[in-house]
Each structure stands twice: as C-alpha cells, then as structure tokens.
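cache lookup: miss for this entity combination. No prior model stored, computing from scratch. Input as submitted by user K.M.:
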Amino acid sequence: MSDTNKEGSKEALFSPKNRKLLTNPLSKDNPISVQVLGICSVLAITVQLRASLVMAISVVAVMGFANVIISLLRKTIPPRIRIIVQLTVIASLVILVDQVLKAYVYDVSRQLSVFVGLIITNCIIMGRLEGFALHNKPWPSFLDGIGNAAGYGWVLLTVGFFRELLGSGTLMGYQVIPNVLYDLGYENNGFMILPPMALITVGVIIWVQRHRDRDLVDIS
Amino acid sequence: MTNRYVFLYASVMVIIVAVVLSGAATLLRPRQERNMRMEKMQNILAAIDIPAARGEAEELFARYVTTAKVVNYQGEEVEGDAFEIDLQEENRKQLEDRNLPVFIAEVEDDTFYIVAVRGAGLWGPIWGYIGLESDLRTIISANFDHASETPGLGAEISDRGFEEQFAGKRIFDDEGNFRPIRVVKGGAPEGDPHAVDAISGGTITSNGVEDMIRNGLEAYRPYFEKIKSS
C-alpha cells in the first residue's frame, strides 16, 4: 500500500503518485476483492441496484470527508485517543448521511435501514484513517478516501447489478427482462436475492480480477 | 501531550459534534416528518387497495379519505385527530381509556372503513391498517409494517404477497359471530374465508399478526356494531 507519501514535498494536484492513490484501490488494492474488507455490507444491501448505488455514494461521502477531517486534525490529535477521535468523526458523518437520506430519499433510507448506521463499523473507513489520513496531507488523503470508497462502490454496484437482474429481472426497479422470455418459461432466480449469492458473486469478481492480473495471485 | 490537553481536546470535539448534529437534525426535521406522514397515508390507502406513489400520496389521501374520526371503546366518537394517534401509546392504556382512529374513504360511491392495528412481532412492534367494505365484514386489503423483523422471514409480512391474501377474507361468519383471521402455519385450508397462510420461517411474527388482528379488531367491535345498527 502506498502509505509513504512524504509530507512537505510540493506536488502537482494530479501527479502520477496522487493519481495512483485514486486508481490503485479500484484494482490492485481494492478493499473488497483484494483486501476482503467490508464484505458484510456487500452481502446485505446488494439485492437491488438502487440501494447499492445509494450505499456507494454514502460511503464515498463519508470516507472523503472523514479522511480530510482526520488529515487536517492529524497534528493535533492526541495519539492516545486517536481511535476515539476517528470513530467520533466517522459516526458523526454517518449520522449526517442518515439524516439527509431520511429527508431526501426516504424509501431508500428505509431499505438500507440499519446498514447506514453500520457504515460506522465498515472497517475500510477506519483502516484508511488509521493507515493513511493520520500521516498524510488533506489532498492525498482525500484522493485516497475517494479512491477506496470508489473501489468499494464499483464492486457493490457490480454485485447489485447481477443480483437484481437475475434475481428480480429488473434494474433500478424497472423491468428489463422482456415478458416474452417469461412466457417462454424463463424464471427469476430466487436464490440471487439471498445473501449467499452475493458472496458467490464477489467470489466470481475476485476470480476474474486475479485471472486478469497475475500479480495478485498468491504464489506461496 | 499532557492529560489536560487530551481531556480538553475530547471535550471540545464532543461539543462541536453535538452542535453540528443537533443543527442538522433540527434543519431536516420538517422534511423527514413530511416523509413519514406521506408514508402513513400510503399505508392507509394501501389498505383499501389504492396504490399511491410517495409524491401523490397526499393528493390521493385527500381525495379518497373523506372522514377521519376517533372512537372510544364503546364506539362513541370522541374529540381528536385520528391521523396523529399513536397506537403504541393507546395500547398501553386500559381499554376504557383508549382512543382508536377510524378512516372513512369514499371510492366510487362505496364507503370503506380503515382501522389501525398494532401488536408485537418477534423482535419489535408490528403494525398495520385493515380496510373493510361497507358491510364491515369483508376485508378489502391490509397493509402491514414492522420495526425490526428478520429480513426474508418475519419481515415478509410487509410484502405485498402476504398482504394480498387478506383481500376478500371475512372477520364475521355468516351468523354474525366475530371470527378474526387466523394465520395458519403450513397453509390455510382452501376456501376458508377466515384464514391466511403464515410465513414459513416466520412463525412468531405470523402469530403476532394473528394476535394483532384479533386484539385490534376486538377493540373496534363496539364501533362496528354501532354503525351496523344505525
């Protein structure tokens, strides 16, 4: 992991190093498919694409802000209570997101129900605060946060896409499998709606990713 | 960093967080409450089989639900705002002190009655609305919701498939005796107008629905009798 961005050095906003912060978590350092973190929420909220999308956006918001805030405070935070400070920042942001969802996208917030609150326990966020934001400047921290959240997000969306398509025959709530197919005997796969299929879908993503990127294959 | 600094830091942080969060909660409260009101309207309309999107709930509610009244245990009308009644609080009171909401809807020259019920599921409260035809005997539809039942199991009571079973069921038998809906594990007998299928894997929630309907409708009986005799 690229946790060693030296402080003080002047860099362009999107220097190759900074770009890497954003793009690495999408593939080589993907929090879900490589680090296998945050699996719990992937299983829980990917039955429909819409819920996955809102969850992904929420995590991007929480993670971007949390990384910047912790990075800004990094020199003032007493090391002894740094975990408490991180948790307070994450928890406050999550409550804010929850309140906003309740006010503006009420149905989705009902669907996500307890899982919005559980963003707090998403170990990806704590991991990035502790591993990156605490030792880096706000801008790289922001990129790192957004990158990791996006890496989490695209896996979430992919899983949500296949589970909704194959499980309910819809996407974002709209029917996409034509009725003709149902008349011919096609049936929605009820198994896709259950959590185990999310795990299997994630497994397939990991498989495809490792097949294409041999560096990730553990040879030991 | 001294202990003094650590304590000071923590205190300041907590105060800032408290101010920000309470500010946000206060600002967003009106919108959130409006959403909850509209959801309640949707649920009430669903009990008489009128599907309403969130945006049009207010309009449809105003169009169809012509009267909302509060009745007591003797079926007498009392003062109060039916829409604002909190059944959770009412259920804690003695039967004599309870106030119950009744919504009366006019749909194409028919008069429908919607009553509210509330009970306990496995993990938390469950509640719902039951729509009755003007004979006060036949159910039009029902709408249920829950606070924390298990997704895929007990939570299925709020699924349309479960709710639709109630359409056409009867709460009084042909002799006029009160026979509330039974929620039968393993499937209701074919053609039984007083029973629906329970949810597999959700036995306790299903039993909760049965109890909720029995107790809830029981409290409304004096009101039903009063309307029938008038």
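stored under new cache key. Strands of chain B lie at 65-71, 77-78, 100-107, 110-120, 125-132, 139-146, 182-184, 195-197.
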